[in-house]
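re: ur question from the group chat, yeah i did fold both. here u go
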Amino acid sequence: KWLLTSEKLQAVKLWITAGPREKFTAAELLKQRLDSGGGLLVMLREGGELKYDTNINFLLEELGKYYAVIRNVYHKYFHPKEALVSSGVLNREISRAAGLIDEENTGNDLQCLRALTFVYPYGATLNVMKPTGFFCLAVLGSCHMFSDQYLDKEENSRIMDVVFQWLTADSIPLNQTDAEDPEITDYTMLPDTGSLSERLRVCLREADENPPDFTSLFDMSLLKLHTNALPSVLEQELPPALFCVQVLQPAFRDLPPPKPDLSDLDETFPSEKVRLAQLSNKCEFLDGSNTVIVSSLSGF
């Protein structure tokens, strides 16, 4: 970076600064150049002075905060900050100097606004106030607008030619009516989509109003038995000569047998050894003799 001096600025017809990233140490020389009638083109970008640590606002007299310009609908370009402006020319002499309208259509305000369509990529907003003097100063809020990537897009090259012609020559007198009272709408502020994307919220649906008759809320046709899918009369699809239609009686299942009553199965169905043991327990031995009592075992 070489130092700005008055001798170097006198030999330059047009001074262009595109996105300065350092502070100017000789900003008063640029002001002297404006006072002497020299041309100056300042191109900025989103973020402005605070983001790129420059003091260009000392020259531009505090234009204000730099907001990023984005489009609110998707059209033609992928990135939201590649804004396509179709009605952005406020002074009709700019469209006439670009060769898009003639002298007859200069009074048509709508045609003058839509004559130039340009791409405003990664640009910043500008708060412009009426200057106190007559300066040949042009401020562009997008450094990428005149870059190689976007110069051939839309009418960007025409705008660059008109701006350079206005800064270097006096052949483009601006319309005083449009310059004094331009029709500018207010900003359309959008939320910070970057921070909102990290804090997702569920969209709640508003509840429908209750009807006056609450009984209409009950839908009794959801669960019911009906024969709507069955035909009312049986149709015979087989030829009658070979097959005869016969109606069979329905075969219902028999009821299961009743469960048996609870009883002592050991007493009802004992084994032979168990019965002998029970019978021997009922007998008594006589005087310790080995007398075997034989009983009737007809049941064994």
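okk and heres the other one u asked abt
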Amino acid sequence: MDFQKNTREWVKGVNKEFETAQLRKKGRLLTDNFFEET
């Protein structure tokens, strides 16, 4: 039971890290496009 709970918490943390990385990548792409247009 305790192991499952820990795994769930770990997965939650990994998902958060992944989402943050995706957002950062998206933001970088948006700024690159913005600079190319101007």
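fwiw on the second one: Residues 2-37 form the longest helix (36 residues). DSSP finds one helix and no strands in the chain. idk if thats what u expected
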